């Protein structure tokens, strides 16, 4: 009996270097989305988005490993989609906490949506869809940055003394 067996160390089906690449990329892609939020001093920023994407990635990787370990068993009822459902529900819960409603205003919707997207990017990356995770993260940055500028321009025109339309 070697030390790994003695402490119950499990050897994953996915090679460890692939697992670490996927987790690292999920953190990077979540950070890309979170950086934009951080830069504009939004409630959920860089750290939150990194943690969400990394957690979503890890939950999905664990689901893959569980399915690989027990999925082929006739007594198993493994369903990997349930893990993605759980990630989605967990991130939705966090996102809902970022949303504040006032009588004539709602704040935090974009932050909540960004958190939800960071979770999806984490899931995609954990499944090996690196390019998809990267492109979606870039798309999120474009949407968050360019459309923020457009919103500010529209809001400035609506202000008293603003330019007429």
UniProtKB/TrEMBL annotation:
Membrane topology designation: Multi-pass membrane protein
Q: Name one GO cellular component term.
A: plasma membrane
Residue intervals of the MgtC/SapB/SrpB/YhiD N-terminal domain: 24-151
Q: Which Pfam families match?
A: MgtC (PF02308)
The highest taxon in the source lineage is Bacteria
Q: Where in the cell is it found?
A: Cell inner membrane; Cell membrane
**What UniProt keywords apply to this chain's record, in alphabetical order?**
Cell inner membrane, Cell membrane, Membrane, Transmembrane, Transmembrane helix
Classification via PANTHER family:
MAGNESIUM TRANSPORTER YHID-RELATED, PROTEIN MGTC
The entry's family comment says: Belongs to the MgtC/SapB family.
Q: What is this protein called?
A: Protein MgtC
């Amino acid at each position: 009996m070697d030390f790994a067996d003695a402490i119950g160390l499990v050897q994953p089906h996915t090679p460890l270097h692939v697992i670490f690449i996927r987790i690292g990329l999920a953190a990077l892609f979540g950070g890309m989305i979170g950086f934009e939020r951080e830069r504009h001093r939004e409630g959920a920023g860089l750290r939150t988005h990194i943690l969400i994407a990394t957690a979503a990635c890890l939950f999905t990787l664990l689901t893959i490993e569980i399915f690989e370990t027990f999925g082929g068993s006739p007594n198993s009822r493994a369903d990997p989609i349930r893990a993605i459902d759980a990630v989605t529900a967990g991130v939705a819960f966090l996102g809902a906490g970022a949303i504040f409603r006032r009588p004539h205003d709602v704040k935090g919707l974009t932050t909540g949506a960004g958190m939800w997207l960071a979770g999806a990017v984490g899931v995609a990356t954990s499944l090996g869809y690196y390019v998809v995770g990267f492109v979606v993260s870039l798309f999120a940055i474009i949407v968050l940055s360019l459309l923020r500028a457009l919103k500010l321009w529209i809001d400035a025109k609506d202000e008293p003394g603003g330019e007429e339309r």
